Amino acid sequence: MTIQLSPLNEKQLGSLSALSAGLTREQLLWINGYFQGLLATSSGIQPVNSVVQEKSSKKLTILYGTHTGRSKTIAGKLTEKLANSGVEVQAIALDEYKTRQLASETNVVFIVSTHGEGEPPAMAEDFHAFITGKRSPKLPGLNYAVVALGDKSYKLFCKTGIDIDLALAQSGAKAILPILKLDVDFEDDVDRWINEFASVFIEISVSSDQTVVAPNPVLKTAEYTRKNPFQATVIDKVKITGRDSDKEVYHVELSLEGSGITYEPGDSVGILASNPTVLVDEILKFKGFDGSERVAIKEGEFSLKEALTNYLEITVLTRDVIQNYFEKSKHIKLQEVIENEEKLDQYLYGYDVLDLLEEFPSDFTAQQLVEILRSFPARLYSISSSQLAVGEEVHITVSRVRFSKNGRERSGACSTYLADQIEPDSLVPVFIERNPAFKLPENEQTPVILVGAGTGVAPYRAFLQHREASNRKGKTWLFFGERRFGSDFLYQIEWQKLLKDGYLEKIDVAFSRDQEQKIYVQHRLIEKQKEIYEWLDKGASIYLCGDMKQMARDVQKALLQIFEAEGGMSEEKALEFLKKLKKEKRFQTDVY
Amino acid sequence: MFIKINTMSDTINWKELSELEKIKYESNYLRGTLVESLADPVTGSIAFADTQISKFHGMYQQFDRDLEKERKRQKLEPAYSFLIRVRIPGGVVSPSQWLKMDDISEQYANHTLKLTTRQAFQLHGVIKSNLKKTIQAMNDRLMDTISACGDVNRNVMCHPNPAESDLHTEMHDTARRISEHLLPSTTAYHEIWLDQKLIADSKKDVEPIYGDRYLPRKFKIAVVLPPYNDCDVFSQDLGFIAIVERGKIIGYNVVVGGGMGSTFGIPEAYPRLADVIGFCTPEQVVEVSEKVVLVQRDNGNRQNRKFSRMKYTIDNHGLDWFKAEVEKYLGYEFQKAKPYFFTRNGDRLGWKKGTDSKWSLTLFVEGGRVVDKGDMKMKTALREVAQNIEGQFVLTGNQSLIIASVTADEKKKISQILKDNGVLPGEISGLRQNSIACVALNTCGLAFAEAERYLPSLITKIEGILDQNGLLKEEIVIRMTGCPNGCGRPYLAEIGFVGKSEGHYNLYLGGNFIGTRLNTLYKETLTEDEILAELQPIIADYASSRNDGEKLGDFVIRKEYVKETLKGSDFKH
What we know:
Chain A is of the alpha/beta class. Chain A has four domains: 57-214, Flavodoxin domain (Rossmann fold); 230-273 and 378-433, Translation factors (Elongation Factor Tu (Ef-tu), domain 3), CATH 2.40.30.10; 277-372, CATH 1.20.990.10; 448-591, 3-Layer(aba) Sandwich (Rossmann fold), CATH 3.40.50. In chain A, strands 1, 2, 3, 4, 5 and 6 form a six-stranded parallel beta sheet that branches. Chain A has a six-stranded antiparallel beta sheet with strand order 12-9-16-7-8-13, covered by helices on one side. In chain A, β3 (107-113), α4 and β4 form a beta-alpha-beta unit. The relative contact order of chain A is 0.08. The model of chain A is unreliable at 43-56 and 207-221 (pLDDT under 50). Chain B is of the alpha+beta class. The interface between A and B is medium-sized, with 23 and 16 residues.
C-alpha cells in the first residue's frame, strides 16, 4: 500500500509500515488508542469518545420493542448516556434482530412495551414468542436488564416485559438490575434508572483510567412532553352530532402557533385535563375535607382540592390504587374484592374513587388519601387534521363519556373537560404522542382501505386532508360505522366533498340503529369482499381505528373471512396472511 | 283520436329552453336516476335532476329550515326529508284509507297529516330510506301519489259535500275520471316504488297525451257545484261549473286560464282568474279536459317557467284564439255558456243532513294540520272516528274535513269521540272559519316568511279588533302564504297576506266572498304591529258604515281603500 501525499517523511513512513506489518486486530486497536491519547493530550481537549476498548464486556446491545415509539426513545437516551461513557452500544428494533445472535451476546438491555391487554407490540411478537417458547436457548453467559413499559389502568401491566424477564432468568442469564416497570408517566423514573444502570454497568466492566466526561444528554429539540406540555389556545369547539343523537361528539381545534410543534397524520395528541369539579367536590364533602388542606405529591405541594382537580386520577380506578387503598384501610370487604378476579374486574369498570370511599369507608388524612391515588395520566386522542391543510393547528374528535351507575351520573375526565370546561381562547396543555405504527404508506401510490367506527374516523380525516393537500386523488376507501345516519355521520359534508372532488374514491357506511337488524362496518366489509381483495392484491394497506373490545375483533374476523373466501386460503393461511400484512406495515391499527 | 305531435327531438334547441325541459326529456319518461339516488347511503338527498323528476311521483325534496345553520355548524348535511302528496280526486277517502294514512304518518312521517288546499293529503318529514315503504303502504289501500306534483295535471278538485247534494256522487265520479284519464301512462312509478316490471307496448305510445316532455308547467282542474265555489274554480287552469236543471247535471260551463302564481319584482307574472268560454255536456267533459291540456302542451312557454302557466298562454295569444284552438282539437264547438251564480267559497261548518238521511259534519281543521296538540287531540279523534264509521272522509278545498255519509247512530258516536278528545266544533269566528294558510316554514324551501305556524295567532289578534266592533261572527275570507307563489290562493282573499321576509308581509284587500275577484295590494312589507294598525280603522269603518249584508271585500272597494283589480295583468305587488 503506497501512501501518497502523506505528511510523513520517508523515514517515518518506513517505520510505520514496519510496525503495522503483521499486527493483530487487538494490537491495532491499542495503537489506535495510543495515538488518540497523544492527540488528546497534545491539543489539551478532553476527548468524548476516548475509552480504550480492552474487553468486549463494554459492549451493550439494546433491543427495543415499541408501538408508539416510547421504547425507542428510551433506547436512544440510554445509548447516548452509555456511548458518552465509552460503551460500544447498538440499539436494534426487535423485529430487525436475528434471534440466533442472542446466544453470542454478553450484555443486553431489553426495552419493551406492553400493548392493550397484555400483548407485545407488533414488532416484538416474534421475539416474545421465541424467548418464551420451547425453542428458547440457554443463555448462561448473558447479562441482561429489562425495562418494561405499560399502563397501570390495564389488567396485565407490563406483561410483555415481565414475560421476557422471567424467560431470561429461566435461561440462566444474569440480571444486571431487577426489572423496571414503568407506568404512563415514566420520564423521571427513566432518567433515574438510566443513571443507575450506567453506573452499575460500567462498574461490572473493566474500569478504564479514563476520566469520563459524561455530558448531560442534550435534548436535540425542544420537545413538548407530558411533563412539559404546550399551552394551546382553543380556536373552536363545536358539537358535531345532530340533535337526535344519543352521543355527544365534539370537534376541537387548537392552535399550535409559536410552539414549533410538528405532527403527522396518524399521531395522537395528549391532553392534560382537569377532573370534573362535581366529583372533586363530592369527594371532599364525603370525607369532610374543605379542600384547602396542604398535601405533598410527586408534582409538588398543593391544596387538596387542586391536587384532586389537576394532578390525581379520580374518575377511573386501577388495580394499584385499589391495592393501595386496601393496604392503607385494611378494609376486610375490600380484600374479598381484590382476591376475586371476577369481582375485581367488575369493580374496575365504571367505578371511581368516590365509590371506593363510600363502599369501603375508612379514615384518611388528606395526605394519606393523595398517596393512595395515582397520577392523572394525560388522555390521548387521535389527531384529526393534517398540518398540510391546517398549518399551526391541531384538530381532535372527542366523544363525551357519560353514564349512570348506582344512581349517580359519571363523566369521563378529559371528554368532560373538553366538552364543558373549555371555550375559544381557553388554554389546553398538550403534547404530541407520535405513532409510527399508524401512518399513510410511504409510497403515495399505495391504495388505502380505512376502517373506523365512531371517533375512530378521526385519523382518517387527517389522512384525507393530507392527500387532498398533496393533490393525491383516488385510491382511498373509507368504511365508517356509527349509530344513526341522521345525527351521527361525523364530518358528513367533508366526506361528501372529498368524494365529489375525487380524493375519497369510495365510501361505505353502516348505521347500526337505522334498521331493525344491527349493521356494523364488518358487515359492509363482507359485502364488498371481492373488491376489497382486489384492492389488497394491488397492494393496498388496511387501517383500523376505534374501539378495541368489540370492533377490532369483529373487523379482524371479517378480514380473515375475506381472505379465506376470496383468496382461497385455509384458516391458518389466512392468519398467516394477516400476519404478513402486519409485518409489511400493510395492516395498521390504532385501537383503544 | 290522438293528435300526434312531432317532438322533433333532434331539432330542439335546448339552450333556448328552460333546463327542466331537458331533464324531463332525458328522464326516460320520469325515471331519471331515481333508483340510484335512493340507493345512495351517503346523503339523504337525491340528485338534482331527480328532485325535478320526483315531483311527478308526488314528492318534493325538502330540508328542515329551522335547523339549517345548526346542521352546517355540525358539519352535517341539511336535514333532508320529503313531502309526499297523495292523489285523491275530489278529496274522497274511505275510513280504511284514512286509517292507513294515519298509520303511515306515525310510522314514516312527522306524526301529522296535512289536508291541502287541493283536497289532497300531504305527508312531511319522510326520509329517503322510507319513501318506498311509504308508497307501498299507501298502495295497499289503493292510494297513489302519481302526478300530485310536477308538470302534469294535478289533483282534480271537486265539490266535497255529499250531504249538500245528491249530485255529489256523479261529480266525484267525473273528477275521478278526469284524473285517471290525464294520469301519466309511464310505468316508471310502478317500477321504482312498487318493484313491478310492467311491459310497455312500445316506446312511441308511452305518453300519448303528455309526450316525452310533459307539460310546460303544472295544470289544475276543479269541478264545482253552484252556488258553492269551495274549489275556487276561477283559480284553476281549467274548471267545470255544473249546470243543474230539474235536479240533473245537464252539463258544465267551461272556464280556462286561472292561476295564482306570481313573483315579486316581475310584473309580467301575475295571478289571473279563469274566463268562461262555453258549455259542454257531461259526456264531453273528459275529452274537453284532454284537448285543453293538449293545447297547453303544444303552445305553453317552455323557455321561461315564470310564464309557462296556461294563463299566460291565453293572455299572449288571446282568449278567442285559445277557444278556437281547443275547438279545433275537439272537432266541435262549445255551446253557449249557461247562467250560474255562487254564494261563497268557504266551507259551511257543522252537521248537515242529506236527502238520503245520512249526515255529514264539516269540521274546521286549522291550517289543514291534523295533529294532537295539548288538550285538543284531533288526530286521535279522527282515528277513532275512522275506526267506528262506515261513511267517508272528504277533504275540502279550504283545508278542512267532512266526515260524510254517516248514520244517525254514527253521528252520536262521532260527537262523543270528538268531545272526549277535546275537539269541540264550537264557536269559531267567521274570520277563522274562512282562513287558509300554506305550509311555508319549516319545510317549504320557497317560503320567505311563516304562514301555517303564524296565521292562527294573527287571526286571534284580528279577532280582538273584530270583537271590539261586534264582528266576530262576520264571515271574512282571510288567507296567508309565505311567498308569492300563492299555493294558499291569497289573491282571492278579502284580507290577503303574502310573506316578503321574516316577520314581514304584504297586505292585500278587496277579494270577494265568492272567489270571483282578485284583491289589490294595500300596503307592503308590514310587521304584525303595522298590520293590526292598518286593519283596525278599516274594520271599525266597516262596522259603522257598511251597507246591509255588505261583505268586507266589497266594502273596501266601494270605500276606495283599494281599487278593484279587473284583470290579472293589472295586478301589481
